[in-house]
């Protein structure tokens, strides 16, 4: 099974990206699972 996670949050100042990665980690341990993580942050103006 293939999964794509798109995290659209800054790496600092919020725990959402960290929480998402903690949930992805156990999923990555399952045999036959392919995970891709796309990290992005919208530029603040």
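^ structure tokens above, recovered residues below v
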């Amino acid at each position: 099974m293939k999964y794509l996670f798109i995290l659209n949050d800054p790496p600092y100042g919020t725990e959402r990206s960290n929480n998402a990665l903690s949930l992805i980690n156990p999923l990555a341990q399952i045999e036959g699972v392919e995970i891709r993580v796309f990290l992005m942050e919208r530029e603040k103006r």
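The chain has a mean pLDDT of 87.
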